[in-house]
């Protein structure tokens, strides 16, 4: 199966990368492995694994979320890698073996040809809950390259999926997305960024602001959902606080599954 150069990507980021450019770098350096990095502000290096290279772009060491004053570079590991098939021989047949903390240090320690290239591309880390919510808002606000809301454009900045029903008495301030088969009742006030998933029911006189209502969530009338992501069972606040709906004395009174009576 792994009989040619291949790419590995982490699943907790949104990227818009020129893979051909990365592959050219990889081949020109006759690399066994190439790490795609992104230059990050100095005050954010502590959030990332940092890659250190020599003058020829060959990796010489790593720093896992270093203190700002100890960081030897600002090249953040984006979790995007190019490998040659021979890389498999460095991975044990059994047991857990991490690419970042085990494989790469092993390759560098044994003098293998591991390179890193600092590329200018769109990379949005969504590995933390608060980052995920921020990126959802950025997507609705058109700040993510090549991301476009789909559906019917009801008015500038407002999109609806098939079968969505919105009361004419609803106030909509973009950006807003309303998913397929969702229903919004009379006199609701929705101020973007707001995303409402499939099959949701937003009852009358609800107020939504900077809110993300996931699929099949029902919000009872006269409720206020601000600065939250909610599902029928869980919630995430903008500061990353997480819990079940039942754990919140407030939310369990107003959030339920729209598929249930």
Which properties best describe this structure?
mainly beta, UDP N-Acetylglucosamine Acyltransferase, domain 1, 22 strands, five-stranded mixed β-sheet, elongated, 261 residues, Spore Coat Polysaccharide Biosynthesis Protein SpsA, Chain A, 2 domains, nine-stranded mixed β-sheet, single chain, 38% strand
Describe the structure.
The protein is mainly β. It has helices at 19-28, 99-109, 129-140, and strands spanning 6-9, 13-16, 33-39, 49-53, 59-64, 75-83, 114-118, 122-125, 152-155, 158-160, 165-166, 171-173, 176-178, 183-184, 189-196, 201-202, 207-213, 217-219, 224-230, 234-237, 242-244, 255-257. Strand 9 and strand 10 form a beta hairpin. It is elongated, with a radius of gyration of 23 Å.
- Output the radius of gyration: 23 Å
Q: Number of helical runs? A: 3
CATH topology of the largest domain: UDP N-Acetylglucosamine Acyltransferase, domain 1
Please bin the fraction of helical residues.
Answer: 10-25%
Pattern of helices and strands = EEHEEEEHEEHEEEEEEEEEEEEEE
> Which architecture of the largest domain per CATH?
3 Solenoid
| CATH H-level homologous superfamily name of the largest domain | Insect antifreeze protein
Rounded mean pLDDT is 94
């Amino acid at each position: 199966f792994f009989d040619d150069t291949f790419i590995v990507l982490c699943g907790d980021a949104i990227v818009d990368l020129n893979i051909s450019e990365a592959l050219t770098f990889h081949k020109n350096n006759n690399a066994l492995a190439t790490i795609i990095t992104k230059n990050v502000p100095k005050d954010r290096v502590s959030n990332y694994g940092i890659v250190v290279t020599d003058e020829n772009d060959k990796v010489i060491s790593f720093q896992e979320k270093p203190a700002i004053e100890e960081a030897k570079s600002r090249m953040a590991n984006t979790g995007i890698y190019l490998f040659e098939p021979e890389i498999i021989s460095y991975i044990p047949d059994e047991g857990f073996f991490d690419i970042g903390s085990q494989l790469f240090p092993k390759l560098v320690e044994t003098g293998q040809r591991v390179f890193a290239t600092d590329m200018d591309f769109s990379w949005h880390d969504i590995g933390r809950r608060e980052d995920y919510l921020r990126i959802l808002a950025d997507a609705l606000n058109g700040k993510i390259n090549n991301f476009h809301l789909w559906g019917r454009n009801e008015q500038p900045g407002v999109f609806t999926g098939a079968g969505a029903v919105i009361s004419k008495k609803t106030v909509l301030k973009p950006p807003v997305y309303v998913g397929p088969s969702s229903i919004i009742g009379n006199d609701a006030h929705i101020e973007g960024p707001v995303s409402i998933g499939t099959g949701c029911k937003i009852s009358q006189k609800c107020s939504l602001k900077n809110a993300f209502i996931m699929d099949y969530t029902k919000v009872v009338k006269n409720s206020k959902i601000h600065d939250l992501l909610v599902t029928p069972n869980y919630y995430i606040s903008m500061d990353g606080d997480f819990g079940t709906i039942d754990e919140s004395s407030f939310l369990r009174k107003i959030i339920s599954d729209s598929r249930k009576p």
